[in-house]
Task: structure prediction
Amino acid sequence: MISLVARRILQLILLLLGISFIVFMSMYIAPGDPATVIAGPTASASDLEAIRTNLGLDKPVLEQYFNYLGGILHGDFGYSYQTGQTVTDAILTRFPNTLKLAIASMIVATIIGIVAGIISAIKQNSWIDVTSTTIALFGVSIPNFWLGAMLILIFSVNLQWFPVGGLNESIFSISGIKQLILPAITLGTASAALIARMSRSSMLEIIQSDYIRTAKAKGVKQKSLIWVHALRNAMIPVITVIGINFGSLLGGTIITEQVFAINGIGRLMIDAIASRDFPIVQGTVLLVAAIFVTVNLIVDIIYALIDPRISYD
Result:
């Protein structure tokens, strides 16, 4: 296990180096000039040159990149071209909202997905199974922006049960929970559908295995058979889906945050791309990538805890 963690940390460092290089070069070759965005269309050539010199944009691109890496090694991710705020402060200000939304969405997706998948497996080929499978198909197919708009129209505008948008209240308050419900459902629907389908197929495979038939022949009750003997083994592939989807949710909140006017990492990234704010874009992408790889590492560790047969030696 220690060797696994060491290898993954090394892979994490190499992966982040690769991602930082790709993002840096992508922003460099993209059309547009940060100096023009900062100074405005009426700025003179001398003003633009002074801004480029101040930001270090007049240096060769590889020198800019290695200067950026040197700053990261010292904990300096740069400053926003637009606000002058440090990238670290800008991210830390917005990240809690994204994290709350991702966790709430994952809780919704996990509960709905696992319960629906297990029930579908137990009631295989029944109307419950068919209904659950059909809803899962629609859940995967429905775009987030459309579902979010429909939820706002129905539950916020017409019924007035939930606020239209924002996420500025404590999640431990009633108003904070109400602000989270609609965006969590919007973001978690597709993940819930994937988890439900994986839970169903995994549970079907397990309950048809020899040891389950043996336990059933010995008179083990149905409830114990499902929730004690089958569920643990059936959850191994499901945990993979949950882990990967959680990492994806952190990076995939952009549309949901736009629809519900949530000041999170997604909106920060969109605004930074539009304004050519290179340091903010690079910082947010590196954060999402680091979280995604870390979540995958945690999933591998949970594998070994759930199933002792799995070894990483």
About this structure: Residues 2-73 form one domain. Residues 87-122 form the longest helix (36 residues). Residues 70 and 151 are 46 Å apart (CA to CA).
